[in-house]
Fold:
Amino acid sequence: MVVELLLLSETSLSTSDSSIAAVAVDSRVQALLDSYPSIFIDPVGLPPTRPCDHSISLIPGAQPFHIRPYRYPPTLKDEIETQVKEMLSRG
Structure:
């Protein structure tokens, strides 16, 4: 397991202009990914219920905050919107 973590830590992704670049995966890392396929699959639904689910207590009658959202670069904003649409379509 330590060797596998070292392999992952030595592998770095290069990005340019705040966009995600396509990178060739090292064969050792690809072998590691292939040996644990159940860990690296895309989630299909919500996580299972737990004995102690988290909840946020709201104040009755409280109004939502009117705060300007964080600013993101256009490429990051587009990626966030794409991932949110995918997650919403999966439920």
Observations:
- DSSP finds three helices and two strands in the chain.
